[in-house]
Design a protein that fits this description.
alpha+beta, 27% helix, 16 strands, 3-stranded mixed β-sheet, single chain
Length: 391
């Protein structure tokens, strides 16, 4: 649902207001106002005040609508929803392996609050709880949290966090095992509004798929889509897709699992597990032609074609179960100034969305479906310029 579509509570048409003011004055004074009449100038000034007042009325009215309110006004309207507070920025997380020089005969403590960083000491990461390297073992794997909240902590690759700050007994070295993710900045108004609307599904305590999907989505605004289904009785499988069109990574899946499997979130009989959507290969290859009398140069059209392809890839890979649809690519390409488009790949392919088929409740296998998503390799996109054609 789009936001910031201003609702017109009262007309602010300047000419309409001016005509109304002049008509009222002429009726009151029983006279005809002319353009140079001083009362005409006064009437125009009064009309301007009315237009400004009406604009203020419209603004105030729109700030009472969640779809149009901004900032603190939107925060105040959150009281109407399940989610009453705008989520603050969250820190990124990853998993770090902490080593000791040699195995000990007794457990070795890695205390909560142990910090580590990268070689340049750009960001610092901290353990949240005590953990022991078991007797006879050389290491323990621990989740760590970035001490700087926000997206700045995302994207640190495995192995890049490798410098200890707080040394513990028998310390040898440390290294991150997973890419860091899940860090998010404070939600924008648009993001907060969408999460507020989705939060309505969380009112139920019966474990509907909408509630699981809501709680999974609030883990990070980088999550584009979530599907929760039940492949077998008592099992809840959660599939998450990121904004870049890729299935959620290990850190994001771990964070979703922790949120959705909490005892105050799931019904007692539900066992929650994380699952990956099935990626279906989708190739892109097409030829486009131009007209000689076109308003745009061939190089400009080529640039626009590339922009259209990028937009199509984001759209096609941005939702679980979205059918591979070359018609949408065709519509984007026709807006670039090209005369004709001939698409070789992809062909239309139906993809499974994995959502429960409530209309087909008599089919015992209705939920045993894995959601699918298109997988597109940008490096393998083939674009042919066919040259010029006559109209």
């Amino acid at each position: 649902m789009s936001r910031n579509t201003e609702h017109q509570f009262i007309s602010t048409d300047t000419e309409e207001v001016k005509a109304t003011v002049v008509a009222l004055w002429e009726r009151f004074a029983n006279t005809k106002l002319h353009a140079a009449d001083p009362m005409m100038l006064l009437s125009m000034w009064v009309a301007d005040l009315f237009v400004r007042a009406r604009a203020d009325i419209n603004f105030t009215g729109n700030q009472n609508l969640p779809s149009a309110a901004d900032g603190e006004n939107l925060d105040a309207l959150a009281d109407l929803y399940y989610l009453v507070d705008r989520p603050d920025a969250t820190p990124a997380t990853c998993t770090v392996r902490f080593y000791i020089t040699e195995a000990q005969s007794t457990p070795t403590l890695v205390p909560a609050g142990t910090r580590c960083t990268d070689q340049n000491q750009t960001l610092y990461w901290v353990t949240e709880e005590d953990a022991y390297i078991e007797a006879g073992s050389m290491y323990v794997d621990l989740p760590v949290e970035c001490q700087t909240a926000g997206e700045v902590g995302n994207g640190w690759t495995a192995g890049s966090i490798n410098t200890i700050v707080d040394v513990y007994d028998y310390y040898d070295r440390c290294e991150s095992l997973t890419d860091s993710s899940n860090g998010s900045d404070r939600l924008t108004d648009d993001e907060f509004y969408e999460v507020m609307r989705a939060s309505q599904d969380a009112y139920s305590t019966a474990g509907p798929h909408g509630a699981y999907e809501y709680f999974a989505k609030i883990v990070s605004p980088d999550i584009a889509d979530v599907v929760a289904n039940s492949p077998s009785p008592g099992i809840v499988a959660i599939h998450a897709l990121m904004n870049d069109g890729q299935p959620a990574g290990e850190e994001t899946k771990r964070a979703i699992y922790e949120v959705c499997s909490a005892i105050d979130r799931r019904p007692l009989t539900d066992f929650v597990k994380m699952a990956d959507p099935e990626q279906v290969d989708c190739e892109i290859e097409f030829t486009y032609w131009l007209t000689r009398d076109g308003l745009m140069s061939a190089s400009d059209v080529a640039d626009m074609v590339q922009v259209a392809v990028d937009e199509y890839i984001l759209w096609q890979t941005g939702k679980l179960g979205r059918d591979i649809n070359p018609s949408y690519l065709h519509s984007l390409l026709m807006g670039t100034g090209a005369k004709r488009i001939e698409i070789t790949k992809p062909v239309f392919t139906h993809l499974e969305d994995g959502r429960p088929d409530y209309k087909n409740w008599q089919n015992p296998d209705y939920a045993e479906r894995t959601p699918q998503v298109a997988k597109i390799d940008r490096d393998k996109v083939v674009i042919h310029a066919g040259g010029y054609e006559d109209e």
